[in-house]
Amino acid sequence: MPDVLDASPYDALLLLSFGGPEGPDDVVPFLENVTRGRGIPTERLKEVGQHYFLFGGVSPINDQNRALLDALREDFAEHGLDLPVYWGNRNWAPYLTDTLRDLVRDGRRRVLVLATSAYASYSGCRQYRENLADAVAALREEGLEPPAIDKLRHYFNHPGFVEPMTEGVLRSLADLPEELRDGAHLAFTTHSIPTAAADTSGPPEAHGDGGAYVRQHLDVAQVIADAVRERTGVDHPWQLVYQSRSGAPHIPWLEPDICDHLEERHAAGAPAVVMAPIGFVSDHMEVLYDLDTEAEAKAGELGLPVRRSATVGADPRFAAAVRDLVLERAAAERGRPVTPCALGALGPSHHLCPVNCCPARAPRPAAAGADSPYA
Ligand SMILES: CC1=C(CCC(=O)O)c2cc3nc(cc4[nH]c(cc5[nH]c(cc1n2)c(C)c5CCC(=O)O)c(CCC(=O)O)c4C)C(CCC(=O)O)=C3C
Ligand SMILES: [Fe+2]
Fold first, then answer.
1. Fewer C-beta neighbours within 10 Å, C or N terminus of the chain?
2. What is the mean pLDDT of residues 359-368?
3. pTM (2 decimals)?
4. Is ligand 1 within 6 A of the CB of residue 215?
5. Residue range 87-100, pLDDT digits in tens
6. What is the CA(353)–ligand 2 centre distance, in A?
7. NCBIfam families recorded for this chain (predicted)?
């Protein structure tokens, strides 16, 4: 029998994700949920709807979360961590508010949240916290007393997140024809966001242009590029690039786009490119459409050999990393000394988002932060 691990003061882990449609009839209501009050052009919505219809109206994200849930439960059981794991989404069933109601029903009083977004930014962190606050408010409206909620720190630089991606890049390189392999460029890719959102991602004072969002991705890219060089003896040129831009054309978003980058690399004589989607936790629609469909098609037009490397998904090393993060946070909350695990130059992220971290354009209550009315 393994030793019993101590998750107190927490009595549940909540996997909090984006959600996605599971059939053609879900697509439009899902997009309405995502974009409620966000001013995304109708043209863009029609286009994104087509991305989903191309795959039968099904996003793989929910099945990927089910697999992650299984991996977490299996890892916790194997290691004697007695902590139930719940799952709720921001934009599709199972909806966060319903899951929070389940937590109350089961008598859970202090919940730790694992968001399926590894980096800072309004879209990747505060927006999740706002939706948590909305769910808390909804339960209070019903006369229920919701549990206290904390959110795990950003895990972009945790070895259990980075190492499976490093291995994925090595596999993609190995999959290229040998004569192209050593000259291959690495394109680390993530979701584009408005430059104004990047610059204030947080906390903004601590970072330069591009804020924590860009700095964190650059740090991970550097760690992976270094590890690849160590393992192969080859120094592959690399760059951080972006994908899945939306919003109005006159508003600046992070660039270059992956497709423009492929064109530019091709013109510069790169023999091949490995696209490494470090910004994403699983192979959801952004990976399946924007990389595997659109960017692959662009590369085909150019005659540029490309490979797309793996996301962590339900890798057991990621599940183990979550266990490590849970135990670290629980110990910290109990006032024990902890040595947070992190690769790269930035070091471990804060446990509690400071006031004004990744600010929204229009301030709204957000849970699990120093500026939270529920902290
Ligand atoms: C940083 C970031 C992540 C990574 C962190 C994280 O994972 O959270 C992410 C993930 C995801 N984004 C997703 C889907 C969408 N994102 C949209 C819109 C937007 N995303 C943004 C940013 C991000 N998004 C932004 C700044 C917008 C524009 C306006 C707004 O702020 O809303 C739209 C509306 C249409 C469009 O404009 O494309 C959709 C449908 C799905 C589900 C995929 C599936 O179904 O498999 C996932 C995992
Ligand atoms: Fe998105």
1. N
2. 93
3. 0.97
4. no
5. 999 999 999 999 99
6. 21
7. PRK00035.2-1
Q: What pLDDT is stored for residue 213 in this prediction? A: 98
Express each pLDDT in 274-301 by its tens digit: 999 999 999 999 999 999 999 999 999 9
Question: Could you tell me if the CB of 40 is within 6 A of ligand 1?
Answer: yes
CA of 206 to the centre of ligand 1 (A): 25
Amino acid present at 243? Q
Q: What are the structural domain ranges in the chain? A: 12-155+314-333, 159-308
| Residue closest to 83 by CA, chosen among 37, 33, 148, 14 | 14
Q: How far is CA 293 from the centre of its chain?
A: 20
Q: Is 129 in the pocket of ligand 1 (CB under 6 A)?
A: no
Residues with Cβ within 8 Å of 324's Cβ and at least 6 positions away in sequence, in order, are 158, 160, 341
Pick the CATH number of 159-308 from 3.40.50.720, 3.40.50.1400, 3.40.190.150, 3.40.1190.10: 3.40.50.1400
Q: Do domains 12-155+314-333 and 159-308 have the same CATH topology?
A: yes
- 296 labelled binding-site residue: no
The ligand that comes nearest to the alpha carbon of residue 281 is: 1
pLDDT band of residue 374 (cuts 50, 70, 90) is low
Q: What is the ipTM of this complex?
A: 0.96
CATH class of 12-155+314-333: alpha beta
164 lines ligand 1 (CB under 6 A): no
CA 46 to centroid of ligand 1, rounded, Å = 15
Instruction: Calculate how far, in angstroms, residue 273's C-alpha sits from the geometric centre of ligand 2.
Output: 24
Q: Which atom of ligand 1 is nearest to the CA of 246?
A: 37
